[in-house]
Design goal:
The chain is of the alpha/beta class. It is built from 12 helices and 11 strands. The protein has one domain: TIM Barrel (Alpha-Beta Barrel), CATH 3.20.20.30. It comes from Saccharomonospora marina XMU15. This is Putative F420-dependent oxidoreductase.
């Protein structure tokens, strides 16, 4: 991989990112800012974050293959790396079938889209693929710098490392709630996890593959499932949950602070003392 991600980054929806936040995240020592959701093909948000900072990497998590064509995305990629070489990672993926009526043969779509990016000169060393299942994970290892799994646990990370093998980037996302009261933490996390993810077939299938039951997934998610997908506690406890991915074989973990509509900096400051 061309860019240096560091071991710990942050993941945040594009609408919640700003140049001012990026400056503080870089100052705290995080390695990468992941632009969450489906940022548009112009990737102007990436430009703004990179322009405001001096060394931190910015990655997309992810550009949606159904929404934005590869040629347009490649133009933005070339513009960004020309201005900020070694600081941008293009994360792409097919999202979930409920998001578009065109969702057919997602594996074929991924292969075709990667072919198109390759023809447009996008370096595989600057590219990661959203991947949960074995076929997508293998494709990520074969065609890109690595995989960016979302809504996963350390158990998935351990399993994914076995699939992709050594030398392939594995960069899972982990939700966290800096809250020591379990019930309060679950009230924060459950709406984010259950809507929409526990109603989306690709995430549900992945959880079942990891051994979670229908009962765990039903009715907004069992306490045990919510606690696994959104680690809560004091800073030390949350940091242990993040490190569990590294111990399971991840190269990098991107941390999403909940709730999403609250200033994340108190959480990221507290975790920086434990993780960085």
């Amino acid at each position: 991989m061309t860019a240096n991600l560091g071991e710990i980054g942050i993941w945040r929806w594009a609408s919640g990112l700003s140049p001012q936040l990026a400056v503080e995240i870089e100052r705290l020592g995080y390695g990468t800012i992941w632009v969450g959701g489906s940022p548009p093909a112009d990737l102007d948000v990436v430009d703004a974050l990179l322009d405001a900072t001096s060394s931190i990497t910015v990655a997309t998590g992810i550009v949606n293959m159904w929404k934005d064509d590869a040629e347009s995305v490649a133009r933005s990629y070339h513009r960004i790396i020309a201005k900020h070489p070694g600081r941008f990672v293009l994360g792409v993926g097919v999202g979930h079938p409920e998001a578009t009526k065109d969702y057919r043969k997602p594996y074929d779509k991924m292969v075709t889209y990667l072919d198109e990016l390759d023809r447009e000169g996008v370096a595989s060393s600057d590219l990661v693929l959203a991947a949960l299942g074995p076929k997508a994970l293998r494709l990520a290892g074969e065609r890109t710098a690595g995989a960016h799994p979302y809504l996963t646990t350390a158990d998935h990370t351990r399993w994914a490392r076995q699939i992709v093998g050594e030398g392939v980037l594995l960069a899972p996302e982990q939700k966290v709630v800096l809250e020591t009261d379990p019930e309060r933490a679950r009230r924060i996390a459950r709406p984010v996890v259950s809507r929409p993810y526990l109603g989306l077939v690709n995430y549900v299938n992945n959880l079942k593959r990891l051994g979670w039951s229908e009962q765990d997934i039903a009715d907004g998610g069992s306490d045990r499932l919510i606690d696994a997908l959104a680690v809560h506690g004091d800073a030390q406890t949350v940091a242990r949950g993040v490190r569990a991915h590294l111990e399971a074989g991840a190269d990098h973990v991107c941390v999403q602070a909940l709730p999403v509509d609250v200033d994340p900096l108190p959480t990221y400051r507290a975790l920086a003392e434990e993780l960085l």
